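#dry-run=false #mode=assembly
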Amino acid sequence: AQKITQTQPGMFVQEKEAVTLDCTYDTSDPSYGLFWYKQPSSGEMIFLIYQGSYDQQNATEGRYSLNFQKARKSANLVISASQLGDSAMYFCAMRDSSYKLIFGSGTRLLVRP
Amino acid sequence: DVKVTQSSRYLVKRTGEKVFLECVQDMDHENMFWYRQDPGLGLRLIYFSYDVKMKEKGDIPEGYSVSREKKERFSLILESASTNQTSMYLCASSPSREQETQYFGPGTRLLVL
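#status=ok
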């Protein structure tokens, strides 16, 4: 069965430091996609970054990068130079073989000033 | 920018009422999705649609139905609301099966009394 696991319910990071949010996945499909979303307290899910299973390079979007290790089935999100506005819930998700998204349980990140 | 709107941010209904949650996207996306989000359970897919008048069950369709009469609009219907349907409801859309990034609306917090 396809599954996304986020083992960190909560994380703290000091402002301006980098932080890594963990995500592991399980699938037997050769083709899949991995996503990270941010959910502030307002509730809206904001798309951050995408990694395709056949992409040779790790995805980057501004301060966000995805550390994709295919053999380990991990897709960790790295946020560089954390800002107070980065405090939110972060969800890892995987597109399954029928093009639906499967979400992890999320990690709450709190950025300390 | 992709714009997904939902008819209400907050909604309070009574047990047994029929409830309509509306979602509209303005980017001519083919695919639309309804999720519910509960603490500790992440997002769970209720129904989705790949085209007008098409619908497919997600992981938790019981107690819900959907309607997609126009490409830009996807409605979630609670035929007879129950207290266990108190939740956050999120609508999303994606361009196509090949362009799979899902963009979310702001969410509707539904309270069933």
